[in-house]
Amino acid sequence: MGGDWPVSVQTMWKDPLPAFSGSDDPRLASIIERIANLQKLGCQIIRFAVPDMSAVESLGLVADLSPIPVVADIHFDWRIALRCMDFPIAKIRINPGNIGAEWKVREVATKAMDKGIPIRVGINGGSLPKDLAQEPDIVEAALAAAEREIEVLESMRFGDIVISLKMNEPDEVVRANEEFASRYPYPLHLGVTEAGPLVAGVVRNTAALVPLLKKGIGATIRVSLSDSMEQEVLAGKEILGCAGKSLRGVRIVSCPRCGRASFDTHAFTSRWMHRFYATDADITIAIMGCVVNGPGEARHADLGITGAGNSALIFRDGKIIRRIDVCDADKAFQEELDKLIEEKAK
Ligand code: SF4
């Protein structure tokens, strides 16, 4: 990550890891399957909280089988960080406000260096080190906290550092990351902390992340939401798209629906959304409610569907290619989508 590498989308597992009976535990298989589905949607890194030693063993089994890099998130006990590094994790995240004394950070860094594991120093506006928590300017306090940890790591010649400076206010996130990027060469993981439920969280993250990404700041992002990991990943992909850093995939255009609609665009979009995001083809799909505006407004789409009275129309590049009963819409649309993807692959 960092440098010229594309910006990656990250999410965080939202439940405690169970104590698996072994590598054939079906609960482990189901976690790995969900991670694989997140990967299909565009997730490239997944982080797990590791609150105690029993969670470390479970994390180790997940890290062994995960199709994407696994990050261990450690808050209070540096010994958990040390033990995590006995497993094939890709990164360790520590919060200096919670991990405590410098010697503990040094112990973690010594082992990380030995194992070739990067450390993310996760500075969070809500859990700054005690002596900085009362500073009037949260941005300066966060930067001071980052600087302090960087000095410790650099004094050990440890350079495999990722920094995150997360706050709740988008403007503060922008200011902190811009300032950090002007002072240090280290890659930044971007996000807004405690961003809120789906709508508020996406808006707040977009407001903070798009301006930063457009300036080339940010190596990884996580859109933290009080919602599912899948929504976090989709929001992350859309934010990258808004910042002009689009990953390969489907761009969805769908109308909001109004009194002219004869097709339930909301239901169709919900049913298809995950399939679209999991499609590895650069195409635009339109889902429109009526013929009055539908195909015209979405003529730039590679493939679209729109309501037309009791029927639905499928169109390509603005031209109608099929009229179908609404009840056959999914089947017909799948056929046309398969054809389009096959053509694009040639
Ligand atoms: S495409 Fe038709 S149904 Fe959808 S918002 Fe526009 S006019 Fe309304």
Model description:
By secondary structure, this protein is of the alpha/beta class. It has two domains: 8-242, Alpha-Beta Barrel (TIM Barrel); 250-345, 2-Layer Sandwich (Sulfite Reductase Hemoprotein, domain 1). 45% of the residues lie in helices and 19% in strands. The protein contains 13 helices and 13 strands. The protein has helices at 26-41, 53-65, 78-84, 96-99, 102-115, 130-133, 138-155, 170-183, 198-214, 229-242, 265-277, 294-297, 329-345, and strands at residues 8-12, 45-49, 70-74, 91-94, 119-124, 161-166, 188-190, 220-221, 250-254, 283-288, 303-308, 311-316, 319-325. Strands 1-2-3-4-5-6-7-8 form an eight-stranded parallel barrel, surrounded by six helices. The protein has a five-stranded mixed sheet with strand order 9-10-11-12-13, with helices on one face. Strand 2 (45-49), helix 2 (53-65) and strand 3 form a beta-alpha-beta unit. Helix 7 runs parallel beside helix 8 (170-183). The longest helix has 18 residues, at 138-155. The protein is elongated, with a radius of gyration of 23 Å. The structure holds iron/sulfur cluster (SF4).
Number of strand segments: 13
Spans of at least 5 consecutive residues whose pLDDT stays below 50 are none
Order of helices and strands: EHEHEHEHHEHHEHEHEHEHEHEEEH
Task: Give, in spatial order, the strands making up the sheet with the most strands.
Answer: 1-2-3-4-5-6-7-8
Number of helices: 13
How many separate domains? 2
Instruction: Give the ligands present.
Output: iron/sulfur cluster
The CATH architecture of the largest domain would be Alpha-Beta Barrel
CATH topology of the largest domain, by name, is: TIM Barrel
What's the name of the CATH homologous superfamily of the largest domain? Answer: Dihydropteroate synthase-like
Helix content percent band? 40-55%
Instruction: Determine the strand fraction and express it as a percent band.
Output: 15-25%
Please outline the major beta sheet: 8 strands, parallel, barrel
Distance between the termini: 31 Å
Mean pLDDT score, rounded?
Answer: 92
